[in-house]
Amino acid sequence: MLPVAVANTASGPVKSGLPPVKPGLPLSIFEPVPVGIDEFGMQVLIRLIWRNLLIGGEPGAGKSALLNVLVAYAALCLNCKLILLDGKQVELGQWRKCAEAFVGPDIAQAFLLLTRLQTMMDNRYAFLLDAERRKVVEKIQTRSPVTGEVIWVPDAFLPYVVAIDEIAYYSATVGDKKQRDSFSELLRDLVARGRAVGIIVIAATQRPSSDIIPTSLRDLFAWRFAGRCTNDSSSDIVLGRGWVEKGWSANMISPNNPGAGLLIAEGGSPQLVKTAYLDDRTCAAIAAYAAGLRAEHRAEQQRNMRLLPPAV
Ligand SMILES: Nc1ncnc2c1ncn2[C@@H]1O[C@H](COP(=O)(O)OP(=O)(O)OP(=O)(O)O)[C@@H](O)[C@H]1O
């Protein structure tokens, strides 16, 4: 087994010695996700569930590559759904067959999609309130309607991983000002309130300055990864103000080292990480495998539904 780095998670450290990933497939979005290695060669994991991640850095820093690693993991988790927004289309396009929705360079569609997610989020909160619960979990305890035994079953609804490659495309480039502002407001609401109901936003941007994403939105991301930044101020914009003064700047990363960056969690301190990298062929192979796995799972669920006795 590989040694595991003590990652600075927002919900407490992922302890050294924790098994990296449970062997076998499918994976679980409730488990910490391997993202790369630290400077000692130890594996770095991040817990995405109930969290959001902002990925920043200059062009070519490795933002899309990290996004692809995370989307690949999520695609192999049958206990989560995928939503993809990609202005360039080709960065996340390979995963579209694994996703519930894939939006390309269309602000109207992006707006509609986020509106539907917001409605779903509100419905989920109404459900949780009714069930006297506070958040979505992997499994809940219930009694078997057949035997009366206490059993564990998957929660009523699945987490959603919402991956956005280049927020700026939707928040500052296409459409008119009203559409762009509405997009940013919706995204802010999802990032602020979506965590407990399992909405995980992973968003990449070249520079998360206030003209691209409102500061009120940027500050809500619990996890942040700064790939190489063109200057100290950009690094502080991604990681949060004050880290450059304490000696942590993603400007110090070599331009010849894409995928290297500083990873920080809410309340933690930055950690130098080299992210894992999946080339196009590997992404295509994983995406095809994951799409097959998901189709098989859907078919099995439909078969099981048909076996249920009719509702009275
Ligand atoms: N972890 C990594 N290890 C090795 N090479 C990497 C890694 N991440 C990225 N690269 C290399 O850097 C190139 C640029 O990466 P990527 O497209 O992810 O950058 P980006 O920050 O998304 O750029 P842009 O903002 O222009 O979209 C990749 O094509 C790949 O060759």
From TrEMBL:
<dbReference type="InterPro" id="IPR050206">
    <property type="entry name" value="FtsK/SpoIIIE/SftA"/>
</dbReference>
<dbReference type="InterPro" id="IPR027417">
    <property type="entry name" value="P-loop_NTPase"/>
</dbReference>
<dbReference type="GO" id="GO:0005524">
    <property type="term" value="F:ATP binding"/>
</dbReference>
<dbReference type="GO" id="GO:0003677">
    <property type="term" value="F:DNA binding"/>
</dbReference>
<dbReference type="Pfam" id="PF01580">
    <property type="entry name" value="FtsK_SpoIIIE"/>
</dbReference>
<keyword id="KW-0067">ATP-binding</keyword>
<feature type="domain" description="FtsK">
    <location>
        <begin position="30"/>
        <end position="236"/>
    </location>
</feature>
<feature type="binding site">
    <location>
        <begin position="57"/>
        <end position="64"/>
    </location>
    <ligand>
        <name>ATP</name>
    </ligand>
</feature>
<protein>
    <recommendedName>
        <fullName>FtsK domain-containing protein</fullName>
    </recommendedName>
</protein>
<dbReference type="InterPro" id="IPR002543">
    <property type="entry name" value="FtsK_dom"/>
</dbReference>
<keyword id="KW-0547">Nucleotide-binding</keyword>
